[in-house]
Structures are given as C-alpha cells and as structure tokens.
Amino acid sequence: PEQAKASLAKSKYKNAAGLPQITLTTSGFGGQVSKVLEALVQEWRDNLGVEVKIRELEPELFLYELKTEKNEMFDMGWIADYAHPQDFVDMLFRTGMDANYGEYSNPEVDKLLNQAALVGDSFTLYQQAEQKLVDDAACLPLYTSRSYTLIKPYVTGYRVSPLGFVQLNRVSVAAH
C-alpha cells in the first residue's frame, strides 16, 4: 500500500480524491460479483481511499461491450489452447489482435513477438516480452487456478495433459 500511495502521489492525480470515476467491468448476472473482485475493491478503498464502481455485463454481451465501450478496467480470464507462452502473450498483447481487449500496444513487445515466431527456442524472447508487460503494468494477473485429484493406490497410469485434459488410455486398475 505504501508503494501504491507513493506512485499515486507522483501521478498527475496526486491522491485518491483527484482520481476520476473508476469503473471495473466484469461478466455476470444479478449483481453477484466474484469474491476476488469484492476483495480487490475493498483493498483499494481501505488502503488507498480509491473508490471503484463495478459494472456487470451479461456474459453474452461482455466481449462485445469490451470492444465497443471502454471502462478503466475489466476482469477476464484466459485458458490456454496449447501450453506455450505464445498463446498468452501474443494473443492478448500484440498490437491489433482480436483478443487484445485492453488495446495494449508497444512496438518493442511486437518486435520481440515477431522474433519469437521465427526461432525454435523462443522462451527467452517471450520472457523479455513478458517483462515489458510487467514494466508497463499492461495487466494485473490475479491468480492461476490449480486442481487436485485423488487417485487410489491401486490405480496406475492416470495422466493429465499440461492443458488439464485427463488421459485415460494408460490407466489400469489392480486387484484390490
């Protein structure tokens, strides 16, 4: 909170009272905001004196509204189509991409992504692009979900792919 207050003091707004109305857009029905967003809004209020209004859009309209109406912030998740940083960095932050709802644009990041597309071992280039995203505060990653599965000791060969798909082709069940 102290660093956030110091950054706010250095900004053109000087303090929370100088901020314009801040609206965070999320997807959902009937005013049932996620506990994560409730906690964030409360923390911003308690620690910084910043008031954030939550705007909830019906899920069917959410992505369309993000394209046509901009608020200061929005909440969304992304699930990998394949286990590679390109699916996140390139799809969400390259200038002009359809999934770049925040309309982030940085020629240095685009250049790194172009280079990464041409080389076999591109992870270092993606790490450099990701660092620029962090430096620019292009997004606020809140969490990564994790699932747990309990497997009986007599079940062997149970596998889950990096994308979370259960692979049952090698499963066997011993007598028990």
Features:
36% helix, 7 strands, 3-stranded parallel beta sheet, alpha/beta, two-stranded antiparallel sheet, 12% strand, 6 helices, globular, 176 residues
3D architecture notes:
It is a single chain. This protein is an alpha/beta fold. It contains six helices and seven strands. Strands 2-1-3 form a three-stranded parallel sheet. A two-stranded antiparallel sheet has the order 4-7. Strand 1 (22-27), helix 2 and strand 2 (52-57) form a beta-alpha-beta unit. Helix 5 runs antiparallel to helix 6. The longest helix has 14 residues, at 35-48. The chain is globular, with a radius of gyration of 21 Å. It starts with a helix and ends with a strand. 6% of the residues are buried. The mean pLDDT is 90.
